[in-house]
Amino acid sequence: MSSIQSGEIAYNRFMKILIIEDDRETAEYLQKAFAEAGHTVHIAGDGETGFALADAGEYDVMVVDRMMPRRDGLSVIAELRSRGNTTPALILSALGQVDDRVTGLRAGGDDYLTKPYAFSELLARVEVLDRRAGAKESETVYHVGDLELDRLSHSVRRATVEIILQPREFRLLEYLMRHAGQVVTRTMLLENVWDYHFDPQTNVIDVHVSRLRGKIEKGFDKPILHTVRGAGYMLKA
Fold first, then answer.
1. Structure confidence by residue, pLDDT tens digits, 52-107
2. How far, CA to CA in Å, does 31 sit from each of 37, 42, 43, 99?
3. Residue 234's beta-bridge partner residues?
4. 184: number of Cβ within 10 Å
5. Which of 74, 80, 105, 112 has the least CB density, counted as fewest CB within 10 Å?
6. Where are the domains of the chain?
7. Domain 141-235 adopts which CATH fold?
8. Opening angle at CA 46, ends 45 and 51, nearest 5
């Protein structure tokens, strides 16, 4: 891999990258190239394996081939998004028409790179996706419609009305706002809000969601916390 050119700035964060690519030679080349840049890389040789790894692991970025055996890349990304997985995904494809790119992005892809490509461009695009995701994680104020949550002051407002929440309710709302517009499942809430890695088979989530909904919706015309039947919850203006 070529050295950094004059005027370029080295990316100073090491990433954990998942490559979902059925062409073994290409996958191994990308793994070697990313490793030389200091990043950790896992490889999946088909869409089904890639989905399982992405769903179970925590990656900074996914590089996903569009056409693969067992399961195509777009369906992998689409189902991950339906489960609330927000890992940035860059789609690689030989299909480069405008409609192809639009389809890929609408399936949940964050970027789309047409083959053949230069690795230097792929690396730069992956770095941009990781940087954007990191900036989102470091946000201190979240907005969904007229609802605002400030992590630093631990305050919540809707329009001009201050809303008082208990600590668990605040944590629940913060998680929902971080994943606004996406389905948040019961399992996601148990693991990330209650720190449970098993289902205690109680209605603790239902109770807290009901209380939170009452506080952020009472007195307002439009609902903002929606139940997605059979799937979970979604915070959406």
1. 999 887 789 999 999 998 889 999 999 998 888 889 999 999 998 999 899 999 98
2. 10, 8, 8, 29
3. 226
4. 24
5. 105
6. 16-137, 141-235
7. Arc Repressor Mutant, subunit A (1.10.10)
8. 110
